[in-house]
Amino acid sequence: MGTPCNLRRGFWLGAVLLWLLASAAADAAETKRVLLLHSFGRDFLPWSDYSKAIRAELERQSPWPIEISDHSLMSARGDDDSDRPFIEYLRTYYAKRAPDLIVSIGAPAAVFVQRYRQELFAGSPMLLTAVEQRRVDPSLLSATDTVVAVNGDLVGFMEDLLHVLPDIRTVAYVNGSSPSERFWRQEITRVLKPYEDRISLVWWSDLSFEEMLAQAATLPPHSAIVWQLLNVDGAGMSHEGDAALNRMRAAANAPIFTYQGAYFGDRIVGGPMYSVEEVSQKAASTAMRMLQAENPSSIKVQPIGFARPRYDWREMQRWGISESRLPPGSEIYFRQPTLWEQYRWQILGILATLLLQAALISWLIYEHRRRSLAEVRTRNALAELAHMNRLETAGHLSASIAHEVGQPITGIVLKASAALRWLAVEKPDMDRIRSMLTDIVGAGQRAGDIIISVRAMFRKDMNEKLPINLNNLVNTVLALVRVDLQKDDVLVEARLDDELPAVMGEAVQLQQVVLNLVVNAADAMRTVQSRVLKIQTSRSASGAVQLSVEDSGPGIGASDRERIFDPLFTTKPGGMGMGLSICRSIIENHRGRIWVSAAASRGAAFHVELPAESRTASRDLAA
Known about the structure:
Layout: H1 2-29, E1 32-38, H2 47-61, E2 66-72, H3 83-93, E3 101-105, H4 107-120, E4 126-132, E5 145-150, H5 154-164, E6 170-175, H6 179-191, E7 200-203, H7 209-217, E8 223-229, H8 243-251, E9 256-257, E10 270-271, H9 276-291, E11 310-312, H10 313-319, E12 331-333, H11 339-342, H12 344-396, H13 398-424, H14 430-458, E13 466-468, H15 470-487, E14 491-496, E15 503-505, H16 507-524, E16 532-539, E17 545-550, H17 558-561, H18 579-589, E18 593-598, E19 604-610, H19 615-622
Parallel strand pairs: 1-2, 1-3, 3-4, 4-5, 6-7, 6-8, 8-9, 11-12, 14-16
Antiparallel strand pairs: 10-11, 13-15, 16-17, 17-19, 18-19
Helix pairs in contact: 2-9, 3-4, 7-8, 13-14, 13-15, 15-16, 16-18
């Protein structure tokens, strides 16, 4: 019998346990009902922002299903006693089940619930929030009430306003005419009484909104507008949302300030103000504690003051307010980033590129200048080398030069002596003497021409380019070296084109080129028996003037021909290796070219090509 009894006892114990668990689950799943009571209506700022934030936080934090009902206190808009119908409505609406929590938004709603709570919701806990501490009557609070209030420093707000606008003389308050708004007019006037000598406070509470707009458009200089509240204007018109503030901003000729954080953003300059987020979060956290059956009288929340001053950068720019005028610790919102902030790395990249380009350009300019100076020095050095080369040539040609000068001088002496003897006779032959004197003059002119030619050849370059007949240069050079060529048994074959056009150049330099080529050709034939020097001038198919100097020597090897014009390269024992290099520089400076090839039979042939001048210049030169 003991066993069946134990089974029955276990069965009933299990059933009781299941019932307790089901009851706990039912309690956990029970919906919490919250009444949100608005002072003016769901869409009246700033209360609407508080209610929306509190609702969102409650729905986010609640572990139970939650039902939030919104009701608006219409009697707060005027002085008429319309509470009774609203009381009957609430009593009927919550007859079956009272709310688990009443949350009043704003002072009028708090006053209403405290006044009628025994009649309506005697056992329901109540949270008073979004209400100024000045509007809460501690004597009306019960053990089931908790307050999350705000406490604004109105004097501090005015001090910050005067700090931002030190020249201000008039402060116009946008304020309505409802009982709550009239309270604030009296309270602010009382608190700011010490500022009466410094600023003029103007109240628009008794005006319609249209009249307020007209006043805002004609404020005197050094004025500011404080948007206090505008729920009901002086004409009894209610103003929901932010339409009224938008119209005020468009019409006003002075900046607008406020300490209600709900108005901040694209319309208000700013100032120290309530933080909707901070107040709503604390209110929602307190509401959750009350819904969890925590004793409301034990929940103490310190009144919430103004948050750090906030200012709208766009409004500051509009009214010319400098950041330096803002109170310490102020936060600036909606600042448009500067070009540097937006494109910092791009700007740095561009600057780096510009600096690199500037450095590169500077380096190129420096290199260009250095190269130009080097070219000048090179040209000067080349001129010196060419002059030295000519002087060295003069030493080799001294016998030939002396012979060329000596011949006409000797002729002059002999003919002058003969003329003197003929004059000494009793009857001199005047015609014969005249002929003799004519020969003396001719010989003197010839000697003078030779001396002038030699001096011109061995003086410093004058860098003057003139039309030149290349045939004349060749003949002058051959005359200078004739004695040396004859001494070395060199046969000269000259074929000069009589129709050769002129070239534009420096006679001394071109004469040096011809002289170097002729002297080099004569030196190259010292080791051979048959010595023939061929000089030819002609005109190429392209119209350029050509000069060829060919010898019958042993020739130049193919490898040496490639380097024959390089500086310091020579095939002659004891040679300097500068003559042909100087020749190439001179010819290239005359826009021509010089090259070497193997002669037709044997030896080497040097070729020079220079651009021809116009036919007109050639005819003038020939004449």
